[in-house]
Design brief:
Layout lengths: L1 H10 L9 E9 L8 E10 L4 E8 L9 H4 L3 H4 L5 H12 L3 E4 L2 H14 L8 E4 H7 L9 H7 L10 H21 L6 E3 L59 E5 L6 H10 L3 E3 L8 E4 L7 H9 L3 E2 L1 H7 L10
Parallel strand pairs: 1-4, 4-5, 7-8, 7-9, 9-10
Antiparallel strand pairs: 1-2, 2-3, 5-6
Helix pairs in contact: 1-8, 6-8
């Protein structure tokens, strides 16, 4: 039970592999697309064992229509005098520096932040993120759904102003502390995902530039550059069948991806191919594994995976499995 894990956390040694600090973040935006903008942002800095250190909040002028005002409540008039993202980028970065970014559905918040920094010709100082949805799953919390309000209610945290970045970040920070204590008490692996900052941006189509695979180049802003999709060579190994939870991946396994990933999809697929896996563009009875950070999304791939009984894991678990893929069995 959660109470047992939390109590154990006070007695058990703190896991040495856990991060030394976190930045609990919430951003409100003009929409959900790649070219949408941030209209407000909040950060609660949290210590190694979940203690709240301070918080920060700002409005951001998106230089466009504010989008769903009925959700975030921020009108064009309200945002007209707000700073541009480039004007708050340095302060925002100081709040993130050296910390794991924590958010509810973190892939969204991280993606929006990375794109804003790329537009500002800067790099977001974030190398890892932690999604509180993924953490609640690791802890097997008895939640009716994965909404922030459900997580807040589980821990008795009062939600005063939903979809206000400052209040959402506060709620998440207060719910994150008992989650972290429970994880530490049970020595639970934190579902940390890699964050690769965008190093290029174009204001014309396509909208998103290449993500870095190493140190940032001397001129990180090169509008118009884009990695073209390419046809892959056939996997040289036979399909050994489905992935079995708790066991390693095996060369030749057919792996499909669904939804957003912290690492650019093409780069993640490159890693899988280099490890000897077969990239499947769809899910069938032959698919060994589906990788998705949102198994409840209801996409055609996740629906098919459930109907076929195909194993489903998140990106963090897949990244760990990629480090030790079993060689194919010689025919």
């Amino acid at each position: 039970m959660l109470e047992d894990r939390t109590t154990a956390a006070s007695a058990a040694p703190w896991p040495a592999a856990y991060p030394t600090g976190y930045a609990v973040v919430d951003v409100e935006t003009t929409g959900l697309a790649r070219d949408d903008r941030i209209v407000s942002a909040a950060v609660y800095r949290v210590g190694a064992q979940g203690e709240i250190e301070d918080h920060w909040y700002t409005l951001v002028n998106p230089q466009r229509d504010p989008g769903p005002v009925w959700i975030h409540g921020l009108t064009s008039e309200t945002l007209a005098g707000a700073p541009l993202f480039k004007d708050i980028a340095e302060e925002f970065a100081s709040r993130l520096e050296g910390r794991v970014l924590v958010a509810h559905n973190a892939v969204f918040d991280w993606s929006m932040i990375a794109r804003e920094y790329a537009r500002a010709e800067r790099t977001a100082p974030v190398r890892q993120r932690l999604c509180t949805i993924a953490l609640s799953k690791e802890l097997a919390l008895p939640l009716p759904n994965h909404k922030l309000e459900s997580l807040a209610a589980h821990f008795g945290v009062e939600q005063r102003h939903a979809h206000n970045a400052l209040d959402d970040a506060r709620v998440l920070a207060e719910a994150f502390r008992p989650s972290l204590l429970a994880a530490a008490g049970g020595n639970v692996r934190l579902p940390l995902l890699e964050c690769r900052p965008l190093t290029e941006w174009s204001d014309g189509a396509p909208r998103i530039g290449r993500q870095s695979t190493g140190p940032a180049p001397s001129s990180p802003y090169r509008p118009g550059s884009w990695r073209q999709s390419r046809k892959r060579q056939p996997c040289p190994y036979p399909n050994p069948g489905r992935y079995e939870p708790g066991k390693p991946l095996k060369q030749g396994m057919r792996v499909a991806f669904s939804g957003d990933t912290s690492v650019e999809r093409e780069l993640l697929e490159d890693r899988a191919v280099e490890a000897g896996l077969h990239i499947a563009t769809s899910v069938s009875r032959l698919t060994s594994l589906l990788v998705t950070n949102d198994p409840d999304s209801g996409t055609s791939k996740t629906v098919k995976a459930r109907s076929f009984g195909t194993p489903v894991i998140d990106e963090a678990a897949f990244g760990q499995l990629l480090q030790d893929v079993t060689p194919a069995t010689p025919e």
